[in-house]
Amino acid sequence: MKNLVVLLFLISFVHLHGQDAPHDKSETRWNMFTYDMGNVFSGMGYAYSRPLHWKGDQWGDFGVTLVGVGAAYLFDDPVYAYADGIKEDVPQVIRDYGFEYGSPANNYMITAGVYAVGLVTKNEKLRRTGVLLISSASTAGLLQQVMKSAFGRARPLSGLSKDTFNPFWAGDKDFHSFPSGHAILAMTNAHAIAKQFKSIWVKSGIYTLGAIPAISRLWEGKHWLSDVVLSVAISIFTVESIDRYLDKKYDDKYNASNKKMSWNLNFGLGTVGLKMQF
């Protein structure tokens, strides 16, 4: 399963960028590699520093995110009860995919594969995409590890309530619920890759593949709904931030005119919805 996913991603990117000619074939791959890896780490630093530069709109997005996570928190128990009830009805291939694609090892296999193809072919767009994937996954992945230990929230399968926290205790994995690493890595990849395409159908397919690992954490009892909602928000904010930074570092851009993000939180009788537009 994981090898098939990797192959499909690489084929899609080679097809997407196959006709793009590199700007300077005389530049060595070693120079490209060192430049790109520098952008991976500088992109991480840029993303972590963004809250220091937030203004009204950014703080508004942050507020909407907190409201969305808080609203999801109200539904944590019934959503887990429902997800746990349908777990055995979910095809095993989907359950396996949900776990495999969101794991760090497989995530970096995909991101490194995308970048390697771009480096070998000297394709700047593909290199930039690989840098975006690697930098975003590393930034969000490190952040979620720190947050898991800092909050120490009990997982659903621990049998403890959603209100149980054991802060700054990293020794017990049953207290690593908030946020979800699988959801963050899967949605980080999905958002970074979907940005390459304009077709709503292609985007929808990519986001669906990215959403399965996030949803799988619910029926596997690894995370609460509010954990997953926060993870998706972290993924989107991280990719958007680093993508804007890379605009200054690479000549080749994609969908350059469409980099605005909006949020719309809707409440109804027994429902809550969060609509995001990119």
Task: Name the descriptors.
278 residues; disordered C terminus; two-stranded antiparallel sheet
Q: What does this protein structure show overall?
A:
This protein is mainly alpha-helical. It has helices at residues 2-17, 29-49, 56-74, 76-86, 92-102, 104-121, 124-151, 181-194, 200-219, 225-247; strands at 262-268, 271-277. It is globular, with a radius of gyration of 19 Å. It starts with a helix and ends with a strand. 37% of the residues are buried. Residues 18-22 and 261-278 have low confidence and may be disordered.
Short characterization:
This protein has 278 residues and is mainly alpha-helical. The protein has a single domain, classed as Vanadium-containing Chloroperoxidase, domain 1 (Up-down Bundle). It has helices at residues 2-17, 29-49, 56-74, 76-86, 92-102, 104-121, 124-151, 181-194, 200-219, 225-247, and strands at residues 262-268, 271-277.
Radius of gyration: 19 Å
End-to-end C-alpha gap: 30 Å
Return the CATH class. Answer: Mainly Alpha
Whole-number average pLDDT? 83
Describe the secondary structure blueprint for this structure.
Layout lengths: L1 H16 L11 H21 L6 H19 L1 H11 L5 H11 L1 H18 L2 H28 L29 H14 L5 H20 L5 H23 L14 E7 L2 E7 L1
Helix pairs in contact: 1-6, 2-7, 2-10, 3-10, 5-8, 5-9, 6-7, 7-8, 7-10, 8-9, 8-10
